[in-house]
Amino acid sequence: MPEAERAAEREADGGRRPKDRPWLMRTYAGHSTAEASNELYRNNLAKGQTGLSVAFDLPTQTGYDPDHVLARGEVGRVGVPVSHLGDMRRLFQDIPLARTNTSMTINATAMWLLALYQVVAEEQGADSDLLQGTTQNDIVKEYLSRGTHVFPPVPSLRLTTDMITYTVAHIPRWNPINICSYHLQEAGATPVQEIAYAMSTAVAVLDAVRDSGQVPAERFGDVVARISFFVNAGVRFVEEMCKMRAFGRIWDQVTRERYGVSDEKQRRFRYGVQVNSLGLTEAQPENNVQRIVLEMLGVTLSKDARARAVQLPAWNEALGLPRPWDQQWSLRIQQVLALESDLLEYEDIFAGSHVVEAKVTSLVEDSLAEMARIEEMGGVMAAVESGYLKSRLVSSHAERRARIESGEERIVGVNCFEATEPNPLTADLDTAIMTVDPANEARVVAALHEWRAGRDEVRVSESLAALKRTAAGTGNLMAATVECARAGVTTGEWSWALRDVFGEFRAPTGVGGAPVAVAAEAGTPLHAVREKVSRTAAELGAGRLRLLVGKPGLDGHSNGAEQIAVRARDAGFEVVYQGIRLTPEQIVSAAVAEDVHCVGLSILSGSHAALVPDVLGRLREEGAGEIPVVVGGIIPGADAEALRAAGVAAVFTPKDFGITEIIGRIVDEIRHANKLEPLEVSA
């Protein structure tokens, strides 16, 4: 708005500046069942939330029904289970979708969930032209960081392309993809990597849509206008704010020069944000509140780079599942900034800053150079398949962890200023977080069986057969998917039909190519641990100690497991790491076949209570019960005690940030299990 108009409005309003419209305010939510999540959404909307952000559980995200073996312990844990049309109806009961902006964090199965959402909206009488919201639908970052991919890169890109072309024609106000650099930062990406990898993904998607021939050239600007981004805002305020300005400049350049989009509005960089959950600490968790506020300011203070939607994590997410009160606190943080401060009354307050301009220019130049390297490799999909992107992220993350361990990067309450008063917020930790009733899974499975028993099986079979025929050909898959939704097909059935045609994909782990991140010279902690590993191997008569790092269940957050694997390798272990999404049976089979000295399990989804005892029991059945098992993840204290009582040798949580120290403790557990004397080796 021109300053003269603002002055006139100020005079009419008693001298106060008129405020810009605030961003969409969301909280990322969903758990247990569709009914429980529906109640949560309606309560959040009543508290002033202006958009919904749906968290789906891991079986839904990875295309499994709740009764599949891999879904055990995962149902309703990190989100809401949606297995069919009935679940989606209950999820949005009494929420008018024609007037609701809904973000759905879903990628491999995005087409399926959008089809269910569209059918429910139709049943409510909503015109598809009115539907507003976003499906994340960025499969590249799943291969790199979050692990909920299903299909190989080429068919995955086809699913994305078909969704985009369908929505442009039939749901024109919907954002069919939310290119997501959020999890790249959590996997270790630098700002340059975050920008370059996200923009390279956008290029791959837009090239695929353009080359598909499904959108007339004159409407390609409509495609560009519906591409949105979802980013991470870390605690380095100046760098994060400059990163967003760099994102906008590169997007404007790419869409103008590569795709010839002349309309400035269609080239606008549209993004939502969740601030960094990786930086939230289990130690002194009250400090997370100021971290969240500072990170939010990085994406709201600058008008020219302001987020279109914001969702904030809760202060206690490093401890477990936030309660509704914790989510309300995060929503109120946004509301105080937008409504009580004068933030929205001014033009961009950083315009003309030489410091900001220099930083933005540097980020743009370095990001474009990295994008050019990826282009030379054949594009982002080729860079995924070759393992280049994953190895770069694992390396960056290892370097960051090394800086934290050395104290070069300081985290208040973790590696400095650790002395603390008793925390009243966590005095009773069992009530400071929300827990999901273990019996919930059985109820969800029973409801699924009831749904299957009551549907028209002939129509289900016919719709799945049509989906397979379309997948085997070249037609758009969205129409066949919508028919599957109407017919009563389940999430697992839709996914397995496409698995039969496309196959499945196991992404590169990036562990083998990661360079040594910490020094191992005499006098260093890693050197001491290497000595301990070597001497223990010699005492056991083994060439090398062998550690199996396992990811049971559907939790795809593999960053911690990868860092343990890399550091154990650097300490002299032979590491067995087969990636994510393994059953307890597969993990035990590998442990026995490789004759390992220790099994390390990593679980962040909350399924540890079901999966870890299963692994322990199977090891005993195989006559390998003497192998020590250690567990890492977001594990409440009471659960940790239960795991140790069940036979787990050690439990590590986010407060155990020293990876070299963890490896040393693993050696201690190996020695204890093999009745060797404790071994002290000085650095």
From TrEMBL:
Its cofactor is adenosylcob(III)alamin. Coiled coil: none annotated. The keyword Metal-binding applies. InterPro entries: Acid_CoA_mut_C, Cbl-dep_enz_cat, Cobalamin-bd, Cobalamin-bd_sf, MeMalonylCoA_mutase_a/b_cat, MMCoA_mutase_a_cat. Residues 544-673 form the B12-binding domain. Gene3D superfamilies: Cobalamin-binding domain, Methylmalonyl-CoA mutase. It comes from the Bacteria. Residues 1-22 are annotated as: Disordered. Keywords: Cobalamin, Cobalt, Isomerase, Metal-binding. GO terms for molecular function: cobalamin binding; metal ion binding; methylmalonyl-CoA mutase activity. The keyword Zinc does not apply. Heterodimer of an alpha and a beta chain. Belongs to the methylmalonyl-CoA mutase family. This is Protein meaA. It comes from Streptomyces niveus (Streptomyces spheroides).
